[in-house]
Prior knowledge:
Largest sheet of chain A: none
Strand content of chain A: under 5%
Shape of chain A: elongated
Oligomer: homodimer
Distance between the termini of chain A: 58 Å
Amino acid sequence: MNPVATPSLSTRERILDAAEHLFAQHGFAGTSMRQLTAAAGVNLAAVNYHFGSKDKLIAEVFQRRLDTMYQARLAALKRALATTPPQLEDVLRAFVEPALDLIHDGGSAFLRVMAHAYAETNEPLWRFLSERYGHVLREFGLALAQCLPDADRDTLHLRLDFLAGALTYAMSDLGLPRGADRAATREDQMRYQRIADELIVFSAAGFRAAFLPKPR
Amino acid sequence: MNPVATPSLSTRERILDAAEHLFAQHGFAGTSMRQLTAAAGVNLAAVNYHFGSKDKLIAEVFQRRLDTMYQARLAALKRALATTPPQLEDVLRAFVEPALDLIHDGGSAFLRVMAHAYAETNEPLWRFLSERYGHVLREFGLALAQCLPDADRDTLHLRLDFLAGALTYAMSDLGLPRGADRAATREDQMRYQRIADELIVFSAAGFRAAFLPKPR
DNA sequence: GTCTATAAAGTGATAGAC
DNA sequence: GTCTATCACTTTATAGAC
C-alpha cells in the first residue's frame, strides 16, 4: 500500500522512520529487517551498514526522539520553577507537552514505541533509558514535592507513575493507521492537544487529592 | 533457571501459565513455541495439539483471565449502583480491584500481557476483546455519567482511558522477575493493594475535576 | 495424548562485487 | 554506500509412530 517512504531523506533517516512506524505497530521482535527495509525502500544490508545491528537500530530509534523530548521537558521544568512557589499545572505541563511536540516532528508513532518498551522486560534497554534520562524524572519528583509540601515521596512517585501511564496509553491511542511518510493532520494535532489539556486537568486534581495515611 | 513448571497441573494449564509469563516478559512475537514448551516442561507439539496454533493460544491466555476479571467488574459495578446516587469511589473500585484479584489467582503477570496487547496493532485480537468485553466498559461509562451528571460523554471517556492507562502501567510495573511457578508473596499483595487504593484516590479527584469548556 | 522427525518458510547478519 | 547471494539458524506447523 505504501511501500516506499519519502525518497528525499537519507537512507539512514528513512530506516529510522520506517522502524519507528513498524515498531509502533508490531513491536521489536514482531518487526523483521526485511519488512523494515522494504518499507523504507532501502536494501536489506543497509541496516547493518548504517547501524551495526537490529538492537543498535532500536536504541537509535529511542535516542533520536528522547534526547529532544527530555531536553524540552527539562527546559520547560526550569521555566516552571522560576515562579515561587511553582504552580503544579506548570510542572505537569512541562512533563506532558513535550510528548505532544513529537507530533509536529512527525513522531506521533513514537509514543506507541514507548508503550512497547514499557511492556517489555529488556534489561539493556531499560538501563539505557534510566541512565540517560533518569535524572530528569528525579528533578520532576523534586519539583512536585515543592508544589505539594504535604506529600510523602512514595505517594508522589506513585502518582507520577499514574501520569506517565495515562500519558503513554492515551496518546498512543491515536496516530496509528498512517503510513511512514504521512504527516499528522490538523485534526490529529487538535485531538492530541485536547488530550494533553484534559490530562493536565485530571492529573492536577489527582496530585492535589488528600494523602492517604502512610501504610504500616 | 526455572525450566520446569509445577508438574501437578495438566499439560494444558502448564502451557497457559508458561505462555502468560513469557508473553509478559517478551511479548507475543518475542516468545517462541520452543521457549514456551521448554518452560512448561511439555513437548513442542503439545501447543498445536491442545490449542491449534500460537494465535489461538494467545487468545486463550486472554480469555482465561479476562472472563473472570470482567465478570467481577460487572458484579462489583452492580453492587456500586445499588446506592443512589452511586458513589464515584465505589464505581472506580469496581473497575480497579478485579485487576488486583489476579494476583491471588497467580495471574500477576497477566497485567503486563495486557500492556503488550495495548501497545500492539493486532486487529483480530482487538476485535475479540472489544466484542467480548466492550459492553462492560460501556456500562462503566453510564455509571460514571450517573456519578457526575455535569460531565460530557467525551471527557468521561477520555478520563476512563487515563484510568485504564494508569492501572495497566502502574500494576504491570511489579510482579515481573518471578518464575512461572512462584506465587505472589504477601509483600507483593500489600504493594498492589496500596497501588490500587492510591489509584482510586488519584482518579476520583481527577474525575471530579472541573470540566473544560467543550472545544469548538 | 505424547513423542520424533521433518517440512517449508522466515530470521539476522555478512562476504564480496560494483 | 549499495547491491546480490548466501550462510547458519530459528521459526511455526504437521505427519505419523507409539
